[in-house]
Amino acid sequence: MTLTLTALPGIPLIRPGDDLPAILAAALSRAGIRLEDGDVLVLAQKIVSKAEGRLINLTQVTPSPRAVDLAGQVEKDPRFVELVLQESRDVVRARPGALIVEHKLGFISANAGIDHSNVAGLWGNPEDWVLLLPEDADASAERIRLGLVGGSALKLGVLIIDSHGRAWRNGVIGTTIGLAGLPALVDLRGVPDLFGYRLRITQVAAADELAAGASLLMGQAAESTPAVHVRGFPYPLREGHLSELIRSKATDLFR
What we know:
The chain is α+β, with helices and mostly antiparallel strands. The chain is 25% helix and 25% strand. The termini are far apart. 37% of the residues are buried.
């Protein structure tokens, strides 16, 4: 079994309105890669958000009274906190320096995934620009997948990832926030192990495992490698959704 991950070269800085499938197709060509059935493309959230125009300038944000109050607790810009609240369903934790929320997409994250790093706007002070996550990352992944396969029958997966922290662990890791054409969760319940024992509870977060591996190539700073081609994904491709990975509140022991 072989799993090959290749960072795609020469992807430019993405701007709102850019044709991301065309840019990715050109990068695949430069790398000498021709897409095959079962391949997966893993994309950093930032290039998807930028292409979709999810850039916001804080000078155009008016904080609500709730945002002002919460900003005092977490010691953050009230305008930034207002955006976090707009992108969230609920505040899970708030303390100086930390604002943990349930994002509208369903997962728990710091600051609703809103970020300053590697973000530059078209005018004003660069420090005033932030980037929101895609509004519907599953739909974004599907649009990109369709743009790459065209009218062909090619079986291709697209994974959109972001860097998230984890309960009980230090450090961030590549995590799935949207996907199309591949399973998010693989259910191994009932599958026999080496000794014939049938697994009872094992479900594999296959999309997150792949996200973590691709994140090693993408990096976190100035690597400029926001797209990774994957060949050898060890599970059959199928339609998948982020919701497969979201634990229900009733079974969430970390809140």
